[in-house]
Structure formats: structure tokens, C-alpha cells
């Protein structure tokens, strides 16, 4: 979701971070030669830009980067009080409260032990490791060597990478030819955690995070004219951008971030000089003459986060790697549009089983993509609202091939505490992600491209909403079960007053 560092799009499934499971089971009666072993590792709040294979600025994921070179990358995918959180192994609590500083070691120890035992039995196995990394609180066991210093997030990222490396090494030494390995994440980084948040890479959601400024006595239309050229400059290059026919010479100058760890996306000054006589403003800029070279500055700044909790790419796009020597092509990047919803049907297919009948599954069997036989993924995906704007779970953002349409936008809380306002769009914002991965410049509503895409977007959205309505056939009644009845009690850890 080309040539602009894209991986797999994983629809934003948010996990609470309160339970830390390591789940495994063996499939009896079959040998490893008949059905593959499957290892799934799910990272929490890991940004797309946290994987070095995706983003050259990241240097903390040596093991994952090695896996990327040996397998397939999927192109289009605080301050805390101590709480007595439990550590689960399958359905058993093995430690409470969980000791976060030793958690990575426990993950690795149990996973390696299980792989050894299951491989010795020659029965195919499924190992699912739901990591606490990179969710806050971040507590690395011991700082690993790092020439750039020991910032908490980078230390935690290296610890997670080391953990995954231990699991992969065990697979390689025991069942390499018979094991499919899938690493991915649940959603983008939690930007409001500042230095404890990861990187969205190039998926900065510029339409959301930028903010125009026009001072008193200035022509707003002139500012918007300059803004349009700023966005064109951003689309094509971050270097000097010259609009020769207008006599406008513009240069982007980065504003220092709020902190050294600001990952939401940079802010920029646009410094423009008019090299030809032109009445750009209705009156001269203060202190400037009406003729000759004039310099004017426009500022864009953070307006909420476009990461976790939003439906912008930074909130939903995450790293994803597939590894199976001899089966998954090595050092390949897939451009197929996939989703975390595809994990279940894909694993079922690889295991040689069938999905239950009479049910509608939103995911697809992606095994042909992962094994290099096809680049055919989803044509359409839907992004549920996740807390930044609109009703939780409502479908108001649509992905249609390379296009993405927003019927509602909003920014989550950023590192500086800023929250972007909720805005509804009767005519949706539509971005061409192949040309504008940063989601900075929506298509003009009068353009032929917009007019061609809009009816398709409306149709697929209508179809999915109708399908959901028709599929609501569950007979389960939880209203009498106090364990699952919605509650609003600020003193109870399981209650969520704001969502009741």
C-alpha cells in the first residue's frame, strides 16, 4: 500500500496490552512432512518505520532485517503506576504481577522450549507469540550495545528484535524446511507517548498534521495559492521547488521538532521569494516593497497525530515479514494489499484444513501471495474508526486499490498534547497513495480521476455496510452474564465508562 517503501497494510486491530499470552498447540496425527509448522509473532504498537528493512533511519532490528533479506516483505501491511497484571501461558496465570524486565527472556525461553519439544515429536505445530513490545510501558531487560545511546524505545526495539532472532534461530536449527514464519504488528505507533513511540516512516498523514497560518491583513487566497505549491513540492521533492511560470521560488526549511524523539512528522517553513512583479497579496506584506524580490513565510505545524487510533496510513500500516526457506521467495517485496484479517484463513489453508461453512470471513487466503505465486491481494479494505474521530468501529475510511477515501478525519493526541479536530466530508477526501503516500494532497473533486473513483467508493461502502447488517445473526445473549455486561465503574479495571 511502488517504489516508495511500502509494505503490507494491516487493518488496525487494537490490543489492550493487559494480557501477555504465549499460545501453542500441536496438531495430532500428522507428520511435519505433511503439514507445515506455523510461527506467528505479533508486535504491539510497532511503527512501519521501526523496521530497518523498511526505513533506512532505523538501525535497531538486525534480526528482522536479516529475515527480510531471506524472506518476503509485504509492501502494502509514560509514567505508569504498578498494576498487578497477569502473565498467561495458554490459559494459566504463571506470574502476577508480571515482571516486565524479565518478560522478553520468558517469551524466548518458552518459545524455544516448545519448538524443541514439538520438533522432536515430528508433529506439526502452531506457535503464536503476542508480544508486549512495543507497547508502553517499555522495560528492556538489559540495555543492548548501542553506539547512539540508550533511549528506552530503541533499547526495547533491540530487545524485541533479539527475542525474535532467538525464536527464528531455533526454527532454523530444528525445522527450517517445514516452518512458515510470519511476523507483523497490530497498529501504528502511539505518538502521544513521545520518546516511547515508534516511527510511521513516510506515512505522515500530512493533510491532518499540517496547519495553515495567515496573519491579519493578509490575503488568505494568496496563502492558499502558496500552500498548493507547497503540497506539490512535498509530493515530488523535499528540495527547492521552483514555479518558473509564476516567478515564485520556494524553499522548505525544517522546523526543529518538539523533542529529539518527535515521530509524528516534521513541520516546515515554506520560504518563498517572488522573482517577478506579481500581486500575490491584496496588500504588500509588512515591511516589503511592491516591486522586486519579496520573501514571505508560511508555517505548517502539528495538528494532532496521524498514527495509532487514526485511520491515516501511519495508524494502520505496519511492518510484516514472511519466512519459509525454499517456499517463500527470498529478498522479495510484495506489493499485494493484505490485512491482519488474512492471518486466520491463510493459516487454515497452509494447514490443509477448511474454513467453517455458513460464515462470512473478511480475510482472504494469502498463501499464493506469500509463496510468490501471485500479487493478487485485496481490491478493497475498510478502516474502522479507532478513537480519533467518529464512532468506534464505524467504517468511514475506504481503501480501493491505490485510492483511499475518508468520510471523516481527525487527529489523535500528539506528543505536544494537540488533538486534531473531527471533520466530516460529504464529498470524501480521496488520496492516490501510489503518488502520495504521505496523504498530503487529496484529489481535486472536479478532476476526472476523482469523479471516476467516487462512485466506486460509495458502492463498495454501501455493499459492506449492507453485508454487515445481513450477517448480524448471532443468537448469543450476554445481557445476563455479569462477566461481559458493559460497565462504568472507574474503580474496576475492566470497565470503560467512555465507551458505554
TrEMBL record:
- Residue ranges annotated as coiled coil are none
State if Isomerase is listed as a keyword: no
UniProt-recorded Gene Ontology molecular function terms: arylsulfatase activity; metal ion binding
| Protein name (record) | Arylsulfatase G isoform X3
Family designation: Belongs to the sulfatase family.
- Which ranges carry the Sulfatase N-terminal domain? 106-191, 307-353
Which UniProt key words apply to this protein? Calcium, Hydrolase, Metal-binding, Signal
Amino acid at each position: 500500500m511502488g517504489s516508495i517503501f511500502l509494505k503490507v497494510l494491516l487493518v488496525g486491530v487494537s490490543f489492550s496490552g493487559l494480557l501477555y499470552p504465549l499460545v501453542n498447540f500441536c496438531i495430532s496425527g500428522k507428520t511435519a512432512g505433511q503439514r507445515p509448522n506455523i510461527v506467528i509473532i505479533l508486535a504491539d504498537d510497532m511503527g512501519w518505520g521501526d523496521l530497518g528493512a523498511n526505513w533506512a533511519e532505523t538501525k535497531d532490528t538486525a534480526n528482522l532485517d536479516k529475515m527480510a533479506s531471506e524472506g518476503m516483505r509485504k509492501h502494502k501491511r509514560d509514567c505508569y503506576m504498578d498494576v498487578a497484571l497477569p502473565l498467561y501461558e495458554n490459559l494459566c496465570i504463571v506470574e502476577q504481577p508480571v515482571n516486565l524486565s524479565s518478560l522478553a527472556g520468558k517469551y524466548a525461553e518458552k518459545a524455544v522450549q516448545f519448538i524443541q519439544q514439538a520438533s522432536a515429536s515430528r508433529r506439526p505445530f502452531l506457535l503464536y507469540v503476542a508480544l508486549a513490545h512495543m507497547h508502553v510501558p517499555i522495560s528492556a531487560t538489559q540495555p543492548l550495545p548501542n553506539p547512539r545511546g540508550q533511549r528506552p524505545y530503541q533499547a526495547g526495539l533491540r530487545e524485541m528484535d533479539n527475542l525474535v532472532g532467538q525464536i527464528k534461530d531455533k526454527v532454523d536449527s530444528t525445522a527450517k524446511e517445514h516452518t512458515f514464519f510470519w511476523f507483523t504488528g497490530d497498529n501504528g505507533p502511539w505518538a502521544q507517548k513521545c520518546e516511547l513511540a515508534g516511527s510511521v516512516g513516510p506515512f505522515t498523514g500530512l493533510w491532518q498534521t499540517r496547519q495553515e497560518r495567515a496573519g491579519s491583513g493578509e490575503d488568505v487566497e494568496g496563502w492558499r495559492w502558496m500552500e498548493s505549491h507547497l503540497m506539490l513540492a512535498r509530493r515530488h521533492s523535499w528540495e527547492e521547488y521552483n514555479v518558473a511560470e509564476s516567478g515564485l521560488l520556494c524553499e522548505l526549511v525544517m522546523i526543529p521538532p518538539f523533542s529529539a524523539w518527535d515521530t509524528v512528522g516534521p513541520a516546515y517553513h515554506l520560504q518563498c521569494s517572488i522573482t517577478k512583479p506579481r500581486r500575490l497579496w491584496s496588500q504588500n506584506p509588512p515591511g516589503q516593497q511592491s516591486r522586486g524580490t519579496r520573501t514571505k513565510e508560511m508555517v505548517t505545524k502539528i495538528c494532532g497525530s496521524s498514527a495509532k487510533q487514526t485511520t491515516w496510513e501511519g495508524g494502520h500500516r505496519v511492518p510484516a515479514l514472511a519466512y519459509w526457506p525454499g517456499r517463500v521467495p527470498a529478498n522479495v517485496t510484495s506489493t499485494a494489499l493484505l490485512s491482519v484479517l488474512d492471518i486466520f484463513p491463510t493459516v487454515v489453508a497452509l494447514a490443509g484444513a477448511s474454513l467453517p461453512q455458513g460464515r462470512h470471513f473478511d480475510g482472504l487466503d494469502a498463501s499464493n501471495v506469500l509463496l510468490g505465486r501471485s500479487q493478487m491481494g485485496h481490491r478493497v479494505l475498510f478502516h474502522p474508526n479507532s478513537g480519533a474521530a467518529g464512532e468506534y468501529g464505524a467504517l468511514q475510511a475506504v481503501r480501493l486499490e491505490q485510492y483511499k477515501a475518508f468520510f471523516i478525519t481527525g487527529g489523535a493526541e500528539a506528543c505536544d498534547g494537540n488533538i486534531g479536530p473531527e471533520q466530516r466530508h460529504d464529498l470524501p477526501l480521496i488520496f492516490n497513495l501510489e503518488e502520495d503516500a504521505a496523504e498530503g494532497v487529496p484529489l481535486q473533486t472536479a478532476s476526472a480521476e476523482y469523479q471516476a473513483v467516487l462512485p466506486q467508493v460509495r458502492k463498495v461502502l454501501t455493499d459492506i455496510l449492507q453485508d454487515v447488517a445481513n450477517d448480524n445473526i448471532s443468537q448469543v445473549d450476554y445481557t445476563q452474564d455479569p462477566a461481559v455486561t458493559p460497565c462504568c465503574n472507574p474503580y474496576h479495571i475492566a470497565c470503560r465508562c467512555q465507551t458505554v
